[in-house]
Protein 1
Amino acid sequence: MKKFFVLVMLLVVGSALVGCQKDDTIGFGVIGPFTGSLSSYGEAVRKGVVLAVEEINRDGGVLGKQVVLYDEDDEGEGAQALAAFGRIANKIDVLIGEVTSGNSKIIAAEAEDNHTPMISPSATDAAVTEDREYIFRACFLDPDQGIAMAKFSAEDLEATKVAVIYDTSDTYSKGVAEAYRGEALRVGLEVVMFDGGFRPADTDYSSLITTLNGLDVDVVFAPVYYEQASVFITQFRNSGNEIPVLGADGFDGIMTVSGVNPAKIDNVYFSNHYLASDLDNTRLQAFITAYQAKYEETPNAFSALGYDATYIAAAAIREAGNLDPIAIKDALTVLTYVGVTGSFQFNETGNPEKGITIVKYVQGVMEKAKVLE
Amino acid sequence: MRLNTIIEQIMNGLQKGSVYALVALGYTMVYGIVKLINFAHGDFIMVGAYTTIFSIPLLASIGCPLWLSIIVAILICSLLGILTEKVAYKPLRQSSRITSLITAIAISLLLQNLFAKLFTSSARMFTQVFIFDVPTIIIGTVKLHKVSILTCAISIVVMVCLQLFVKKTKMGKAMRAVSENPDAAKLMGISINRVVSFTFAIGAGLAGLAAIIFCSYSMSFDPYVGGSLGIKAFVAAVLGGIGSIPGAMLGGFLIGLSESMTQTFLSSEWVDIIVFSILIFILLFKPSGLMGKMTSEKV
């Protein structure tokens, strides 16, 4: 019995030692949907993170140590996201991830328990950072998007009646939709329809569109992801309806869907983190140049957010002066940073104060519609 | 609600229903002859969709008219059906039904994951509407999409042809014989293998046709479309009476209409609830489905 006990203790200590990384490197983790229906976002984030890590290492690393990146694909699935975190939790000092609100919430619970500082580049659901000390984000919140789009509908598009359609199976979609409705009612808009018309695995929106065409509305707000958005907008325009279609940051990526017809993606507005063709931010231009040199494509908001999130993590570690999770977490809580997607002022909520850009699709090309600070 | 909106919604329901009907036909035919629920049937459609989207540029490059891709899709699906039957179902003909069912599910998962691996699981849009991109007919204030009418017409024509085929031709007779009593059929000199292969070829070919129609109005697909489409079509087949060709058609249209009517008059969240409640309700009162026959075990 005693021998067995000693053996077990040896194994435990041994595995603990194996789990620790070497002292001369820092571990950054990135988890996201690198394949699957959300791969447009996951891959964009990953590329931004990889570029940032390369630059940081080239410039001497953090606290004199090189950064090692552990990237894990979760295909957009919650169970896989959790497993991915489990695989790298012991090797990393900071986690950049996850990309979507749903999976970020799942991993955040684990990361909080594990005391792993986590920065999500793009999760916009308020619940991700709520009541948590170790969880941060580099982007704005869903409610902010819904509110901004509602104000935009009323003030800039001069709408009086709106229809809101969302995806019932997605907390992101429902969250933004509800925030929009709340603000819409507050500014005096009439919400004629509030329906979960986007059902998973069904891209035939003809019934929904027939209903919409029978209503007298000025705009349609559909905060869904780009795969459904591209099909819905195309079918909607095919039915002859030209009213503006509004969305949230999930619309970023519509043009990446294979087979999409740019002419149909017109008079579409969505809230996003930034617009690459705008901003005389020299950091942004340097980022775009470097990104294009490395990947031979232009970056989108998610790449930029991944890039910023990585630099934010590095900045926090430098401020902390060491790799103690508590020190990193405390440094993050008060961090001020200027990145390619704007300026960040963090606070104890884990959410930064930063601005929203409203982008317009004109025949498939993105243009700046409005910038809200 | 205005009348023209209601009529449009009915057309939407029929359009959706015609795809369910075509798929249900495939399910019902295979079940009728081989007594096997081919769960991979929905995924044959997925294969048909991918075939279409890849054969279009191929045909364009050799100068063939694009609508030939329909023929290509149907052919490939038929071949896939025959192949699946030979490789996976034939060896299990003497085994219990559960075994065949599990194999069918396995084939379904295999196809889904194979295509996800080969072509990534991102959705693709299908806007090559070479035949189906037609303007709408306007009667008074009602907009009738030609697409809806075409798809319904195609489904009904296919069903009628199939029914005629089964009732009037020699092969059809052979199929009916195998369905009633395989052993007696064998004694009569009917080649079971030939009949079964033929059945799968037709069933899968129908899936190929359904794929084109599905793509033209649904406009987007990914490796997993077969799953949900297959379930709805299976429900339609059971609702109409599994083994009955007109039943599959009826079931398909019924499901399609229920979906669109529920979305119109209630809300989208109720659609699946209503559809499956209808199924349960019908089966409670007529377990063999609307047009199915009660088969009692012969002692």
Protein 2
Amino acid sequence: MKIGILLKEGPYSHQAADSAFQFAKAALRKGHQVESVFMYNDGVINVSNRADPPQDDRNLFKCWSDLGAQGVQIWACIAASKRRGIDEKVLSPNCAITGLGTLTDIALRVDRLVTFGD
Amino acid sequence: MAGQEGDRVVKRIMHVLHRAPHGTIYTYEGLEMILIMAAFEQDISVAFIGDGVFALIKDQRTDQLGIKSYVNTFKALEGYDVEKLYVDRESIEERGLSTSDFIVEVEVLPSQELGRLMKSQDIVIHH
């Protein structure tokens, strides 16, 4: 199955980013195609390269960047990013900033769009 | 479910607004998403449930909050052919509201019917 993920919460303060990442990993393991992860609302903070979380905990920023390196497209909404200080200068590797039109294209392409948020 | 218009895929996409209009940004950014998706000529509907029904109330004054009011933006939806606006009957009854309080025309549905409509969608996005 071709899957798209919409993530609406930032890392750590909320379970949604962890759940979305675990879901993506499990889906890939089962042989599904996770084609895109689209960050919206505070979710855009997930693509920042400015974070330095404690070394003895998971690094969600790296999780997304690594998932991007595996061929999953990691997108952050440009309007939501501009509100929250996310731009090309602070963008993690293998992530990109794009418009909501990209989310619509994803929604039309995939078999399932799965939302993670509050 | 998903239909075809010529070569174009048309999906049934429902946006669910379920939070109060101010206090969090979810409803406002939800509305921004709805307006962009509307330009893609999909079968879009919007469901207002729970505190989400407060988003439609006329004459919201947000100046004392220091927050931009966006209630008038709901009136723009019609221009984008987003005309399927559903309001959960129980939610407005619980809050002592009626459709005359709202800035746009809506269809009031019982929860069960709204649930059935939700189930028939290709995509449901909650905000």
